[in-house]
Amino acid sequence: MDLQLSGKVAVVTGASRGIGRAIAATLAEEGMSLALVARSRDQLDDLARSLRTKSLVLAVDLREPDAPSMVVAATLSHFGRLDLLVNNAGATKRGDFFELSDHDWADGFALKFLGAMRCCRAAWPHLKAAGGNIVNIVGIGGRTGTAEFTIGGSVNAALLNLTKALADRGVRDGVRVNAINPGSIATDRLQARLRSFASDHGLDLTRAEQEMARLSGVARFGQPDEIARVVAFLASPRTEFCHGTVVDVDGGQTRTL
Predict the structure, then answer these.
(1) Which among 17, 99, 169, 191 counts the fewest CB atoms within 10 Å?
(2) Edge-to-edge strands of the sheet including 246-249?
(3) Range of the domain at 195
């Protein structure tokens, strides 16, 4: 299926690895030009060299209040337009609620929520002009709270609400806003959790992965490109009636309505 994305321009945050890298590669395959955003220039440069489309590397820390507006300005200066913003950047600290500090909480909100909010605010007038859209990569923890994921769950819930609120504004302005909730995806972060689980339970990595998946209620963990393909689909004019939509891509882990 032609997703009608060729010739358009996207900003992808958190693009250096994992889900963000897969999103960038998939959008490039669809013919989009890309502004690649993350803190690691080396990883972004490596990604840019692998793509078959035009790209702009922006090594910035989106926790800095002025960084999102700089990203949007650089994208407009380089490409002359902006059609899609993918907010993917941000990781939050897991752990015992009573061991998490105020700094941990502030840092969790600084990148994933405030960084995304500021990117949306800076990009909005240009997306409005282009009839473009936003896809927020959030997470199933925003729907189902767990004791060891209090920061991440709270941040994700806030970002899901922001998605709905901006979708409401987008009806008037012609900007589509949707979100994806990934479940357990085979990224470096999951591999670190897997190694810890294997060590704690005396299992090899293969058995540990099977057991972690079973405890999560899924048949297997997901792959980054499985999230990326949904991003491309939601970004496409083919899904123009999807607005304020939240898609759980989690192998069935979320069982609530």
Answers:
(1) 99
(2) 55-59, 33-38, 9-13, 84-87, 133-137, 176-182, 246-249
(3) 188-221
**In this structure, is the dihedral angle defined by the CA atoms of residues 118, 119, 125 and 131, taken in order, positive or negative?**
negative
Q: What is the pTM of this model?
A: 0.96
User: Are 120 and 26 members of one domain?
Assistant: yes
Q: Give the chain's domain count.
A: 2
Q: Is 254 a member of any domain?
A: no
Ramachandran sector of residue 226 (left: φ over 0; alpha: ψ -120 to 50; beta: rest): alpha
